[in-house]
Amino acid sequence: MGKLEENYAQIDPVWDRVRHEALEAVRSEPAVGGFIHTNILQHLSFENALAHRIASKLASSEISEQTVRDICFRAVSKAPQIANSARADVMAVVDRDPACSRYMQPLLYFKGLLAKLLLLVIMYPCFILLRWEEPARKMKIVIQK
Fold first, then answer.
1. If the chain, 145 residues long, is cut into consecutive pieces of 10 residues, what is the mean pLDDT of each piece?
2. DSSP string spanning 39-55?
């Protein structure tokens, strides 16, 4: 492990573990490589991967994946507690769920975790700014359909 990777692992050990598990999964099961690369390995941070994963689940013909990803990333960037909450949730799931043995599993497969984080992203403008930002208001309406 290089010096830069060691320093980054100290800053964000959850993301470091997710990335190492993803690399291991790709080596042991090349068939899932594309899925894991798209959702984890191509991203530089936990926040980017989180925004991508939420957007990939929520995108539809009514709202593009890029629009959802931009809204999610803006909220996560302005409110680091959203991503920190996600990190804590990932650790809690791995700790408490006997069927979950990897940190990458909740991020990739657990719809309840993504739904909770989506709620935080949508509610961010209301709770933090005490007003609705127009893109978030539109996304809220799309989600309710």
1. 54 94 96 95 93 86 84 82 90 94 94 84 59 55 57
2. IIIT-SSHHHHHHHHHH
